[in-house]
Amino acid sequence: MDENPVILDGGLATELEAAGFQIQGDPLWSAKILHTNPQAVKEAHCRLAWEGFIQHLGLTPEQANQLLMSGVQLAKEAVQDFKGDGVHPEAVQLAGRCKQLVAVGVNCCDPVLVEPLLESAGPHRSPDLSWVVYPNRGEEWVQGAGWKTSESKVCLADLSPKWRRQWAAWIGGCCRVSPADIAAVRQQLHGST
C-alpha cells in the first residue's frame, strides 16, 4: 500500500455556500448554481482542485485542467462499461473488473459509516483497486430545515488513519467539510499542511 494517500478537496457545495450562495433547502443543491451561475462553480472548482493540483503536484494550470478532464473521461468510460455488463449484485466486484478504474468508494455518507463500509467491502477488493473515502461532516440533513448540526462533531482527521489501514488511498470530504477539515486530514496523514 502506498504510504502517501491522496488528499482530496472538500465539498463543492460548502465552498459555494462560503461564497454566499444559498444551497440548503434547494432540491438541486449545487447543481442549481451550475444552472444559475456557472462561473461561480468554475471558480469554486479552481479553488478546490486546480490550485491543489498546482500547489501539491507541481502541475501547470494547463496540466491541472488535463488531469481533471482525464478524470471525467475515465468516469464516462466506467459508466459505459457498467451499462454494457448489466447490473451485478456486487458493485465492488464489478468495479474490480473494470480496467479503467483505479478506485471506488463512499461519498456523502456519515463518516462513522466509512469504517464498517470499508470492512464489509474489503474481501471483494481487487489488488489493483483503491478505496475513495469522501464522507460528509456527519450532520443530519432535515428536509425543509437544512443541516442539523450536532454538539458532538466527528473529526475526519482522527478517523483517517483507520481508513488508511483499510486501504483508502483517496481521502476527502463532501457536504459541510471545509478546507480546514481537509488541512487537518492532510496534517494527520502527511504531517504537513
Automatic annotation (TrEMBL):
Biological process terms in GO annotation: methionine biosynthetic process; methylation; S-methylmethionine cycle
Organism: Aldrovandia affinis
Record's protein name: Hcy-binding domain-containing protein
Pathway: Amino-acid biosynthesis; L-methionine biosynthesis via de novo pathway
Keywords: Metal-binding, Methyltransferase, Transferase, Zinc
UniProt xrefs under Pfam families: S-methyl_trans
UniProt cross-references to InterPro entries, sorted A to Z: HCY_dom (IPR003726), HCY_dom_sf (IPR036589), Hcy_S-methyltransferase (IPR051486)
UniProt GO molecular function: metal ion binding; S-adenosylmethionine-homocysteine S-methyltransferase activity
Domain of life of the organism encoding this protein: Eukaryota
